[in-house]
Amino acid sequence: MITPYVKKFNLDVSLVPIDIPILYKIEMQDFEIESSIAYQLNFISIEIRETPQEREFYSKGGRISVGKE
Q: Nearest Cα to 67, choosing from 21, 4, 8, 2?
């Protein structure tokens, strides 16, 4: 949901309009992932790097820096 972003950035958004009939007409695409390109030698799973609480916090905009740029 976008609520955490709206609150974090104090946005004046009450509703994000979505045209449901058009949404149903959009064709779903399923892309193949080429494993040789996606492979990372020193990859560490997010399940090892972060706790479930950290993943939830970050999925709600916790990594988005707010302040002077």
A: 8
